[in-house]
Amino acid sequence: MIRNTLLAGLLACAATPALAQNGPPPSPYAPLQDRPTCTRDELKAATDAYVEAQRTGNIGRLALHEKVRFVQDMADVTREAGLWNTALPIAHAMSFHDDKRCKTFTEIVVTEGGKPYVIGTRLYLHEGKVLRVDSLVTTTGHWLFNANAYLKYSSAEDWGAIFKYQKTPPSEMMRGADTYLSAFNDKFVDIPWGTPCARLEGGAYSNRQGDPHASCEVGIPPGVLYIVNRDYLIDEEKGVINVFCRFGSSTGGPDSHTFRFIDGKIRAVHTLSVLNGPQANDEGGMVRGSVDPNAG
Fold this sequence. Notes:
The chain is an alpha+beta fold. The protein folds into two domains: 40-139, Roll (Nuclear Transport Factor 2, Chain: A), CATH 3.10.450.50; 161-273, Nuclear Transport Factor 2, Chain: A (Roll), CATH 3.10.450. It has four helices and twelve strands, in the order H-H-E-E-E-E-E-E-H-H-E-E-E-E-E-E. The chain has helices at 2-21, 40-56, 147-154, 170-182, and strands spanning 64-72, 75-76, 92-98, 103-110, 117-126, 129-138, 193-201, 204-205, 227-235, 240-247, 253-262, 265-273. The strands form two sheets. It has a six-stranded mixed β-sheet with strand order 2-1-6-5-4-3, sandwiched between helices. A six-stranded mixed β-sheet has the order 8-7-12-11-10-9, with helices on both faces. A hairpin with a 6-residue loop joins strand 4 and strand 5. The radius of gyration is 22 Å and the shape is globular.
């Protein structure tokens, strides 16, 4: 009996490597690093190259890894299939850089050229090479979309570097962003809102009057909705955290939330959601007849 048990154990151990070999095939893409290496100058050069690539429709302007991964709206695509191959007349662009995680985020607004867009693109780098190009592309029909309003308000805001005494520790920015996103399923969380604060959601703007005392506490849609698959980028110099996530489930709507922190408080929010929904008008209000989904 003991001999049979030992023999069965030996056979099981011998079979383990064979079973492991039958697992999923290795990824064809360059692996993301646990602790990537980069400099802030490399990240800035990459975002400059990306903006020019989108302007000319030539993603080859980037220093791409030979096994670079291309993602659009949180689905793998071929290099040839992405919007980055289309030359776009960029009206406004701004970028953020995380030299710890070696990620960048660039927001691009297009109001002319036949079709409007607001695009949010992440680049993931390691040792000077782009391992992943990850774009969220919003356009007419998507949640509260209006590129004219997005251009009007985003270009008037200040998202530049902040003074040292105004900075918020990265852990607190992450906690604050998570608190906001968790409010969609728990209405009792305490979001660290600052004053003044403005929220630009697709094109809808919460402070169209330019009120110096404006608040971002304009409401969270009722119901329970879980925001999952959160992926973070933190630009400490600008007090910015960007979160890529999905609404509702791991296959839910692709979304980007960007928060600006000053003195530990949220002072601005930009959101891009690849979800169908009501539209905003050119002034940042709701299209006539649409119900504000954040009201009440």
